[in-house]
Design a protein that fits this description.
Elements: H1 11-15, H2 19-24, H3 29-34, H4 40-53, H5 60-72, H6 76-85, H7 97-109, H8 112-124, H9 146-154, H10 160-166
Length: 173
């Protein structure tokens, strides 16, 4: 079990951050906690507390990140319901997101058939017309999260943490 005492952070300061700083700062916010050895569940609990403090409005991506951290720490049973909550209703706002979610959940369940179906659905998505010209997307590979899913596929029998961090995602394969 991961211990809060082993993880160093200023909880009050982190919980006072605006949503972007808390969730999207790659070296700050909850990520600074999660990067410490054995602090993934502590960071996941911090995300949960942040969401609860902010009231009924929740952020899909924060729910996703909480689920990812729980999965990386091996708490698959708690991770899957969170990941399921991160699905979007209007796919056009985030093309390919639900396919990515489905592939990740199938990976965690070790359901190769469902994983392959989600992966194929992701690859079959037509590239939106705006993709190559939009400031936010022009430098990103289509479909988004393709490399992550390819990493999961190449290390399907591994843990989520290993497959996500070592099987093609961060290694550039």
């Amino acid at each position: 079990m991961q211990s809060v005492a082993a993880c160093t952070f200023d909880k009050e300061k982190l919980l006072a951050l605006d949503a972007d700083s808390f969730d999207q700062d790659m070296k700050g916010g909850w990520r600074a906690v999660a990067m410490q050895d054995n602090c993934q569940l502590v960071a996941a609990d911090l995300i949960k507390e942040y969401r609860e403090l902010r009231g009924p409005r929740t952020w899909r991506v924060m729910i996703w990140h909480e689920g990812q951290l729980r999965a990386m720490a091996g708490d698959i049973r708690s991770a899957i319901p969170l990941l399921e909550q991160s699905r979007v209703v209007l796919e056009e706002t985030s093309p390919g997101w639900n396919e990515y979610v489905n592939a990740t959940i199938a990976f965690l369940r070790k359901d190769r058939r469902a994983f392959d179906e989600a992966y194929a659905a992701l690859l079959a998505l037509p590239k939106p017309e705006y993709w190559d010209t939009n400031f936010f997307t022009k430098d990103k590979q289509w479909p988004l999260n393709r490399r992550v899913v390819e990493g999961l596929a190449s290390c399907f029998k591994s843990s989520y943490e290993k497959a996500y961090s070592q099987c093609g995602i961060s290694t550039g394969k």
